[in-house]
Amino acid sequence: MNFFEDELMKEAISEVLRQQKASTTMLQRRFHIGYNRAHRLIQHMETMGIISGKNGYEARKIIMDEGDVIFKYLR
């Protein structure tokens, strides 16, 4: 699976790491995109292990730091 086929993926990851929070709404507002696209970006980040899965109403946890993401996906 190519997680980076969406040209916003790298920017979305950077924003999540910078804000230290991940939500569909945050991505929608920051990038002026629709729910489906923002949700897909969040799902990809979860699959990649960058953020935790959804746990009810609790915020998703940021699992990887920037160095981990660069080492695993961006080199």
TrEMBL record:
SUPFAM superfamilies: Winged helix' DNA-binding domain. Gene3D superfamilies: Winged helix-like DNA-binding domain superfamily/Winged helix DNA-binding domain. It holds the Pfam family FtsK_gamma. Residues 2-67 form the FtsK gamma domain. Transmembrane segments: none annotated. This is FtsK gamma domain-containing protein. It comes from Megasphaera stantonii.
